[in-house]
Design brief:
This protein is an alpha/beta fold. It folds into two domains: 172 residues, 3-Layer(aba) Sandwich (Peroxisomal Thiolase, Chain A, domain 1); 147 residues, Thiolase/Chalcone synthase (Peroxisomal Thiolase, Chain A, domain 1, 3-Layer(aba) Sandwich). It is 30% helix and 24% strand. The strands form four sheets. It has a five-stranded mixed beta sheet, with helices on both faces. The longest helix is centred in the C-terminal third of the chain and has 22 residues. The protein is globular. 50% of the residues are buried.
Length: 332
């Protein structure tokens, strides 16, 4: 019997229309286009400004587009996992809302929280259900409204983040394509460098937490940079060696889009030329769980069946990992 794998058979996205440029940010906080481009590499980011719309709205838009694009009936989907750190509310989950609004009546759902590594963790989780023969069609959503937890008076963090929703369809296949391997790690000792202090059971919302701005992302940039470069590079190189994949063999590295300097450092460690690295951070910023699928969506027309890809991410927690996969279809 042939081995069952989970293959990405479709991908789509939702991007808010509003573009927050560096020039506009420079009028809000003490920063400049030059400062942001030199240190981070972001030119603009999309922001969901419409009142009453949040992460589930973007995820719903992406899933509806994905179903139409792949000619998939909603009732065919058996599982929906949403990677997010900005759900509309603690419960019901974003996945619950998305499934209801997209007619996924036969799917059970849950959210997965692993910060910027969330999409990879969710992708592998969905793949495992398919590899075991349990399900044939699974949707993985990566969506975050990072503007909702960004302090636009903090010049160190406000240039970093944008909003986006993405969705990929995973299907069972016996061909030599799909998700092949993964290497994942977590290290809770890194939590002190990158976290959201309030809003959980330890520090519930109060006048004090709001006044102290504890509901916004806190990050120690230098510590996170150091860890991200070493950890993303280590797992990416390790998974290539495990499968005897050389830099020439690899079609693309698909890195989490957090910082241009991190991406460039990881690519150097892997021996990759710039043309083999998917980069769109300059247009969208760090959309957390949406960055990697957003890259895949933008490069979809360049990917061919059998292309070897390494997906790599690092996020708060700390969480990090890499996925090795072979692309499952030719350009549409």
């Amino acid at each position: 019997m042939s081995k069952i794998r989970a293959a990405i058979t479709g991908i789509d996205t939702f991007l808010p229309e509003y573009r927050l440029t560096n020039d506009e940010l420079s009028r809000m906080v003490d920063t400049s286009d030059e400062w942001i481009m030199q240190r981070i590499g972001i030119k603009e980011r999309r922001i969901l400004k419409e009142e009453g719309k949040a992460t589930a709205f973007m995820g719903t838009k992406a899933v509806k587009s994905l179903l139409a694009k792949t000619n998939t009936h909603p009732e065919e989907i058996e599982l929906l996992i949403t990677a997010t750190i900005t759900p509309d509310m603690i419960f019901p989950t974003a996945s619950n809302i998305i499934a209801y609004k997209t007619g996924l009546k036969n799917a059970w759902t849950y959210d997965l929280l692993a910060a910027c590594s969330g999409f990879l963790f969710a992708l592998q989780t969905g793949a495992t259900f398919i590899e075991g023969g349990r399900y044939k069609k699974v949707i993985i959503v990566g969506a975050d409204k990072m503007s909702s937890i960004t302090d636009y008076n903090d010049r160190t963090t406000c240039p970093l983040f944008g909003d986006a929703g993405t969705a990929v369809l995973l299907e069972a296949t016996t061909e030599d394509v799909g998700v092949i391997d993964h290497i994942f790690h977590t290290d809770g000792s890194g939590g002190k460098h990158l976290y959201l202090k309030a809003g959980g059971s330890l520090h519930p919302a109060s006048h004090e937490t709001v006044e102290n701005k504890e509901h916004y992302v806190y990050q120690e940039g230098q510590a996170v940079f150091k860890f991200a470069v070493s950890k993303m590079a280590d797992v990416s190189v390790e998974i290539m060696k495990r499968h005897n994949v050389s830099a020439d063999d690899l079609a693309y590295l698909v890195p989490h889009q957090a910082n241009m300097r991190i991406i460039e450092a990881v690519a150097r460690r892997m021996g990759l030329i710039k043309e083999k690295v998917m980069i769109n951070i300059q247009r969208y910023g760090n959309t957390t769980a949406a960055t990697i699928p957003l890259c895949l969506w933008e490069w979809e027309h360049k990917l061919h069946k059998g292309d070897k890809l390494v997906l790599s991410a690092f996020g708060g927690g700390f969480t990090w990992g890499a996925v090795y996969l072979k692309w499952a279809y030719d350009p549409i």
